[in-house]
Structure formats: structure tokens, C-alpha cells
Design a protein that fits this description.
- With about 400 residues, the chain is of the alpha/beta class.
- About 35% of the residues lie in helices and about 20% in strands.
- The chain is built from 13 helices and 18 strands.
- The protein has helices at about 1-35, 45-50, 55-70, 70-75, 105-115, 140-150, 160-170, 175-195, 210-215, 230-240, 270-280, 295-305, 305-310; strands at about 40-45, 80, 85-90, 95, 115-120, 155, 200-205, 220-225, 255, 285-290, 320-325, 330-335, 340-345, 355-360, 370-375, 380-385, 390-395, 400-405.
- It has an eight-stranded parallel β-sheet.
- Helix 11 packs parallel to helix 12.
- It is globular and about 70 Å long.
- It binds alpha-D-galactopyranose.
- Alpha-D-galactopyranose (GLA) binds near residues 47 and 128.
């Protein structure tokens, strides 16, 4: 009788443990799905192509094209209006959009009706970088206006606030840093007060190692460098400078090496693939910046390669790092879920025609003697390969593998 009671007690105990575990698992899943920017944000931003010329029509056309090209379904859901939308403030100090954007609420509704989200841009300074109206002294009012319009994402760009810092603390870098953090925290609190979830994107060009304190002022992403341009050398200089920053990124808080230039300027197919690969391996936000009205199929194929996007968006949320270099050839690796790893072999050599042969260097990567591999850009399974695997890569080109032990 006593033995039977103990058995019943034990099974009740195990059932309770099981229930507790299931509740915990569910709570973790819910928490993850509620994290803003649980994976690096994906979308499109007006600056890299339209710069100061962007209009309401460009944003509506882009929203239509994000849907018709398949970009939205590939994950590019934020449509972000960058600088130059701002008008004057009204008598109550409420910010108005300028004549290029006659109806912000109507625009937000349109973007939302397409299953997309709207992003906007401002500065903690009195003026933005293009010398339009900034948010200084109007933070709560502006955040509330964005929330009323239906904005889902704010890029907050230091610009003229640098002058405020310089005037208030010309000889005191510690105080200048404190002022900057306070300015970013102020807008963070203003956003929270609206009750509307918004991705908060810090833009201060990587000053004062922002990756160390970006999350403490509410940043979901923070620019780690100065501006990118549609130029191969500039793009790879930015990408390669991210080595060592991996430990600062994770779900909800990402290093941002700036928006994509894929499809802009004279970047070749190899260069566009190198750009996309670097950003994916860096778990960087994928914010396209090209003109979708004239997107070439080869550019669409780079931006919408599902396997590359999956590397960037992998749920583990780990940024990759450089693991090997030999002259202009570098190998970068990013841990993925399921004990897989993305391995990118770049030939950063200066001549686009110079080919380089390179092995895998699995041992240096701590990956044992052999792996099962898939060549992502070639869309080809390679079976099991070891250190004797050799590939030849043209200058400015890349081979991207997903490998599994
Ligand atoms: C800065 C930012 C850019 C862009 C412009 C707009 O240069 O770094 O990304 O937002 O301002 O003026």
C-alpha cells in the first residue's frame, strides 16, 4: 500500500515537472516572438538611392514593388523614409511633413495595407544631417506624432547634436558621451511612452564604441561606421572593420554596418554577392537601398536568395567573425542553429580578374576533419569535404558554404 502511494506521488511529481517545463518553453517562445528585432531588421530605406529627392510617390511605388517583386515575402518588410521628409512645426510645436509628403497618415495606412511597416528618420539635434527640422526639445511630441501616424521604426541620427555636445563640453569627452547617451535615452523613453512598438535605430557612426552601450539606451541596432557608398572598396572596408564586434550583437540588439548598396552604382554581380554575403555573415540588418522600379533580375536574385537571407536571419542570432586570412583571402564563419556554420571565403584582391586558390582550413575553425557542405550561391550540395577541398575565387568574388559537422 505504502509502495503504491510513493509510486503515485512520484508520477504526480514527474507530471508537474513536465507541465512546468512546457510552460517555461511556451513563455520563452512568446518572449522571443515579442522581442522587437528578434532577428536583424529587414526592409528598404530611401537614402542610398533617392537621398534628398525622395517623395510620397517614391515610397508608395516602393511599397507596391516590394510586394510585386517578392521582396516583402522574402522578409523586407520595413519601408523607411530617411532624411528630407520634415517640414515646419505648427503653433503647438507639432512637426509637419513638407510638401513632398502631403499626408503622412495616409502614406502609413497605404504602406500597412500592403502588409509592410513604415520607418521614419529624425535627429536629437535641432537640425538633421540634411539641415531639416530635428527633434531637440520636442522628443515626446515627435514620438507621439510618429505613433499617431502609425510609424513602426525610427532611425535617430546624431547630426547637429554633435555641436550641442561640443559647445556644452568642449574639453570633456566623458561628458560629451554622457550627453549623447542621454539624448538617445530621452527618445527611447518618449517612444516607450507612446505605447507603440517601434524599432529604434541609433545612428552616430560608431562613436565611443556604441556597441558597448547601445542596448542600455534602448537601441535595437546601432550604426558601427560612417556612411557606406555604392563603391566596392568602401563597402568591404566597412564590412571587414566589423571583425571582433560579434559578442555585442544578439536578438533585439544588432551591429549595423549601414544599409545595403546592392544594385546601386556600378557594383558587379560578384561585388553584390560579396556585399550580401558579408552582411549575412555579420547578422547585419538587411535594409536594401536600390531603386526597385528598375531592379535587374541578377540584383533581385542576390537580394532575395533565400539561403543567404536564412543565414542572416538565423534564430541563434550570432554574428560571424573572421577566422582565417592569407593575403587578400579571408574566411569568415557564423554559427547557425543545428550545429551548422556559414563559412564565407572572400577574395578581396584588388583586381577583379585575379583568381586565388584556397583550401578550407577546417582545423583552424575548430571544425574537425570533415564536414557536409552546401555551396549557397551555386545552390549545390558538395557532400562531405575536408581540408583538401580547393576552390578558386576571382578578385572581388566569394564562395559561401553552409557546413555541418
Ligand atoms: C547621415 C546618415 C545617413 C543618412 C543621412 C541623411 O549621413 O549616416 O545614413 O541618413 O545622414 O541626411
Amino acid at each position: 500500500m505504502a509502495m503504491a502511494a510513493v509510486r503515485v506521488e512520484r508520477s504526480v511529481w514527474w507530471i508537474l515537472c513536465g507541465l512546468f517545463f512546457l510552460v517555461l518553453l511556451g513563455a520563452t517562445r512568446v518572449a522571443r516572438s515579442q522581442t522587437i528585432a528578434a532577428t536583424p531588421p529587414m526592409g528598404w530605406n530611401s537614402w542610398n538611392f533617392f537621398a534628398g529627392k525622395v517623395t510620397d510617390k517614391d515610397i508608395r511605388d516602393t511599397a507596391d514593388l516590394l510586394v510585386s517583386t517578392g521582396m516583402r515575402d522574402a522578409g523586407y518588410v520595413y519601408v523607411n523614409i530617411d532624411d528630407t521628409w520634415e517640414g515646419e512645426r505648427d503653433a503647438q510645436g507639432r512637426i509637419q511633413s513638407n510638401s513632398k509628403f502631403p499626408d503622412m497618415k495616409g502614406l502609413a495606412d497605404y504602406v500597412h495595407s500592403k502588409g509592410l511597416k513604415l520607418g521614419i528618420y529624425s535627429s536629437p539635434g535641432a537640425k538633421t544631417c540634411a539641415r531639416y527640422e530635428g527633434s531637440l526639445g520636442h522628443e515626446e511630441q515627435d514620438a507621439q506624432t510618429y505613433a499617431d501616424w502609425g510609424v513602426d521604426y525610427l532611425k535617430y541620427d546624431l547630426c547637429s547634436y554633435g555641436m550641442v555636445m561640443g559647445i556644452q563640453a568642449p574639453d570633456d569627452p566623458t561628458k560629451r558621451n554622457r550627453l549623447m547617451r542621454e539624448a538617445y535615452e530621452k527618445m527611447h523613453q518618449a517612444i516607450l511612452k507612446t505605447g507603440r512598438p517601434m524599432v529604434y535605430s541609433l545612428c552616430q557612426y560608431g562613436m565611443d564604441s556604441v556597441w558597448e552601450w547601445g542596448p542600455s539606451v534602448g537601441g535595437n541596432l546601432w550604426r558601427t561606421t560612417g556612411d557606406i557608398s555604392a563603391n566596392y572598396d568602401r563597402m568591404i572596408a566597412i564590412g571587414r572593420s566589423q571583425a571582433g564586434l560579434a559578442k555585442f550583437a544578439g536578438p533585439g540588439h544588432w551591429n549595423d554596418p549601414d544599409m545595403l548598396e546592392v544594385g546601386n552604382g556600378k557594383l558587379t554581380l560578384d561585388e553584390n554577392r560579396t556585399h550580401m554575403t558579408l552582411w549575412a555573415v555579420l547578422a547585419a540588418p538587411l535594409i536594401a537601398g536600390n531603386n526597385l522600379t528598375e531592379m535587374k533580375p541578377e540584383v533581385a536574385a542576390v537580394l532575395m536568395n533565400k539561403e543567404v537571407i536564412a543565414i542572416d536571419q538565423d534564430a541563434l542570432g550570432k554574428q560571424g567573425n573572421r577566422v582565417y586570412e592569407e593575403g587578400p583571402v579571408e574566411i569568415w564563419a557564423k554559427p547557425l542553429t543545428g550545429r551548422s556554420e556559414a563559412v564565407a571565403i572572400f577574395n578581396f584582391g584588388s583586381s577583379p580578374t585575379e583568381m586565388r586558390g584556397i583550401g578550407l582550413h577546417l582545423k583552424e575553425m575548430g571544425m574537425g576533419r570533415e564536414v557536409r557542405a552546401r555551396d549557397v550561391w551555386a545552390a549545390k550540395d558538395l557532400g562531405r569535404i575536408g581540408d583538401d577541398y580547393r576552390t578558386t575565387i576571382p578578385g572581388h568574388g566569394v564562395v559561401l558554404l553552409v557546413v555541418k559537422r
